[in-house]
Amino acid sequence: MEILLLIFLPLVGAVIASLSGKSQGVKTLAFIWSLLSLGLSAYLLSVFNPNSPEPQFTYDYPWFLYSGIRFQAGIDGISMLMVLLTNGLIPLIILSSFKHHYRNPGAFYALILFMQSGLLLVFTALDGFLFYIGWEAALIPIYFICGIWGGENRIRVNLKFFIYTIFGSLIMLLGIIYMASHTPDGTFSIQSFYKVTLDPATQGWVFWAFFLAFAVKMPVFPFHTWQPDTYTEAPTAGSMLLAGVMLKMGIYGAIRWLIPVAPLGFAEWGPVALLLSITGIVYASIIAFKQKDIKRLIAYSSIAHVGLIAAGVFVWNVKGLQGAMIQMLNHGVNVFGLFFVADILIRRMETRDTDKMGGIAAVAPTFAVAFLVILLGTIALPLTNGFIGEFLLLMGLYNYNLWASVIAGLTIIFGAVYMLRMYQRTMLGNTNEGTLNFKEIDGTEKLVLGIVCLLIIVIGVYPNPILHISEATVKSLVEMVDGRIQGISTTF
Amino acid sequence: MNALITISLLAILILYLGLFKAKRALLPVTLLGLTGAFVLTVIEWNSYAQPIFNNMMQFDRFAVVFSGITILTTVLVLILSKDYFERISANVAEYYALILFSLAGIIIMVSYHNLSMLFIGIEIMSVSLYILAGIKKRDFSSNEAALKYFLMGAFSTGFLLFGTALIYGATGSFDLAEIREYLVSSTKSSPLLYSGIILLIVGLCFKVGAAPFHFWTPDVYEGSPSLITAYMSTVVKTAGFAAFLRIMLYCFAPKQEFWIPMIVAIAALSLLIGNVTAVYQQHFKRMLAYSSISHAGYMLFGLIALNASSVNALFVYAAAYSVASVIAFAALILLQRQTGNDSFDSFNGIARKNPFLAFTLTIAMLSLAGIPLTAGFVGKFMMFSRTLSAYHTILVVFAVINAVIGIFYYFRVIISMYFKPEERAELTVPTGFKIVLAFSALATVVLGIYPEFIASLI
């Protein structure tokens, strides 16, 4: 029952927010409402048993009888982290947009809360159909957020984004239907999906059907072309939602719905997926060197970082997956922080061009320090949150193949280069006319950046509780898939 | 059964009301009568299992649910007709009567148990529609529509009739059950029968506007008054597919390996032609006309996945398509009446001035595009899953690609309304329209979230 409350609480908030119309007070309402969700997930965390790999707080209701579709949801270790990420970031995102005066704020905050429901549905669904519904329910609001409140080129960019993702999702839907028509009991339940034994060639098709949807969402090279444009044109809250939470849907999907569902397909095509992920790391890093647009730079750096996480998933061992789990959380926090910093810069400077900035550290030292902490987290300095994640990911890759880990390890060096260069260009050097009167951060900005910096350092110093949450689930999932690959290979 | 009698009598009553100049009573009486017919239909759910009237008709669950949805959609369309015909002509009663007569034909089309009744039903419906398409007597395109529709319709009826005759020649009966019995028992394949089936399929594909027999649709849909187009693209289309599925499912299922490849080709062609041409349209009404061809393609999936649950799938799809189309046409009528234009650009900025209209139209477009949480998605999902389990994987993949193309043109409306802010005058939305919009939008969302309650009717 708790799970229903968790999923539908934001939806109720969305309805209330949409009714409240044009008053700017709706911000506070949305913020308080998202804190309720956060409180609820904190409560769930406190009663969650991390030593069990089974989904907890499950709810099961026959939804659509004749097709074997059930409203089946629950939270295991992997889901728990994603729920925490979603419900933790949404209040921060709402808080970070306090300084903006969006037109028609009721609709804006209603869409954010609506999206939160969709995301939570994705991360807790234990039924293929339900997963798909959540997948799309998270897409519709972000489409409108980017389309209504986005930049000048929003219409073209947004359509491209939508077409890419919907094409991937529809192919995934075919995969889901195909799997469901082959389950022993004819249902869409994930446990039944795990029991289907298809021949290797068919599993290959199923693998690609699911992979396409997840690869577009993450995005993995070469399905990433929508991403930099969309991140750049979206309003900042939209970029934060896209990069902070939404792309985790793809990685989460790969962990739960791709590899365990088509293990033989994965055994055959996993290396290709790994290769694509690693290519993306190098490719995006190189492009990031050249970027002067601060939002674009963050977008490309995000492709690189996500490529590393995806690579950690596709090597499929406990270290890599644990690294992916914690790094999803870290990437969420860090990319949110970066976009918020970018938002502060853009709002004050009224440009996205880093060449026009410089010397801001001298006029706004607090801001510069906060930016530096976020930056160090992003480039994985030890004792920051990025370090533990990338360390585990690279360990996982190393266990799989030395060269994979070497090339993927470049991301740290590359990342350091382009990130520090961005810092240098914006914060250091001489002040110019534009930056001379740069206003130091205040109020909600200070609060948000403070929370982000705190998270970066706390997770970096003491990551164990977080790793512990997902450990049991990850271990049992890896064992299950390895067992199935062995088991099925012997039958064919 | 009683619904058919009620509707026929109602049409005559309306003619008399017109004779006595009781103009104000026309619409309320029509709506009241149709509500009565709807209730009578619902009551008969599950009451007739056997054919009636010397095996001419069978009012089984299939007939009941499709009668129900067609009557309901007609009610929705007619609520939109308040003050509509008055602008066109002085003799309003005729139009209500004609719509009712065609609805009577439709009730026969969904409940026939004899090929001759199929023909009679289609003719009663079509003849009324030929006139309705041309009710704007002084309007050139309306005349063109009526003439085109009549010529093409008569032509296709010829095919249908010829096919029926050949089938009679081969099997010796017009009765669905007897034809089926013959097909099951006889092992020899007769060219007479096969030609008959082909001609029948061609005739019916003309009626439902599936490619390559679709050429009349865009012009007729565009030329006819928008209200009549709304009626044609929802009620008439649903009835055409119900008739189509009924004969193929109950009669020719034993020979399915012969005709299903044909339907597969027709479905694929309809999807492609409908979608690709719709992308290039600049006007909302014409876009709807072409998109209706592509929806015909999706609905043909119900025939391809031929089994008991394909009735279910077709019913849900037709219901979803009908309610969403009613919203689209309601918006179209408002727009045409108040701005005289229906290009996509004329939708710019509606979201700010008419948030309610924009919201409902968005739901309709999402539903037509097949986005989850709307009825259109459930319909497509059911069609796809049935067809996929019948092993037509490539066709379904093709359909998915087409569904993505569909997003291009359906989202143009949404993009215009929400993303292109522009100063414009507010459209006045009459109360009747508000009721229809709210009801249809609500139905679309409810069906999208909990389809169980209509999917389990059959």
TrEMBL record, chain A:
Instruction: Enumerate the InterPro entries for this protein.
Output: NADH_Q_OxRdtase_chainM/4 (IPR010227), NADH_UbQ_OxRdtase (IPR003918), ND/Mrp_TM (IPR001750)
Ranges annotated as spanning the membrane: 6-22, 29-49, 69-94, 106-123, 129-149, 161-180, 205-226, 238-259, 271-290, 297-316, 328-346, 358-380, 400-420, 447-467
Please give the Gene Ontology molecular function terms for this protein.
NADH dehydrogenase (ubiquinone) activity; NADH dehydrogenase activity; ubiquinone binding
The UniProt entry lists membrane topology as: Multi-pass membrane protein
Source organism superkingdom: Bacteria
Q: Where located?
A: Endomembrane system; Membrane
Could you name the Gene Ontology cellular component terms for this entry? endomembrane system; membrane
Gene Ontology biological process: ATP synthesis coupled electron transport; electron transport coupled proton transport
Q: Where is the NADH:quinone oxidoreductase/Mrp antiporter transmembrane domain?
A: 127-411
| Keywords per UniProt | Membrane, Transmembrane, Transmembrane helix
Regarding protein family, the annotation reads: Belongs to the complex I subunit 4 family.
Q: What is this protein called?
A: NADH-quinone oxidoreductase subunit M
Source organism of the structure: Arcticibacter tournemirensis
From TrEMBL, chain B:
**Source superkingdom:** Bacteria
Reaction(s) catalysed by this chain's protein: a quinone + NADH + 5 H(+)(in) = a quinol + NAD(+) + 4 H(+)(out)
What binding partners and quaternary form does the record give?
Answer: NDH-1 is composed of 14 different subunits. Subunits NuoA, H, J, K, L, M, N constitute the membrane sector of the complex.
Give the coiled coil ranges: none
Query: Where is the NADH:quinone oxidoreductase/Mrp antiporter transmembrane domain positioned along the sequence?
Result: 114-406
Q: Which family does it belong to?
A: Belongs to the complex I subunit 2 family.
Database matches in HAMAP family: NDH1_NuoN_1
Where are the membrane-spanning stretches? 6-22, 29-49, 61-80, 92-112, 118-135, 147-171, 191-216, 228-252, 258-280, 287-308, 314-335, 356-378, 390-411, 432-450
Any one biological process term the GO annotation gives: ATP synthesis coupled electron transport
Would you tell me the Gene Ontology cellular component terms?
endomembrane system; plasma membrane
Organism of this sequence: Arcticibacter tournemirensis
One molecular function GO term is:
quinone binding
Q: What class of enzyme is it?
A: translocase
Where mainly found? membrane
Under which name does UniProt file this protein? NADH-quinone oxidoreductase subunit N
Question: What subcellular compartments does it reside in?
Answer: Cell membrane; Endomembrane system; Membrane
In the Enzyme Commission scheme, what number(s) does this protein have?
7.1.1.-
Name of the encoding gene: nuoN
Which of UniProt's keywords are assigned here?
Cell membrane, Membrane, NAD, Quinone, Translocase, Transmembrane, Transmembrane helix, Transport
High-level lineage: Bacteria, Pseudomonadati, Bacteroidota, Sphingobacteriia, Sphingobacteriales
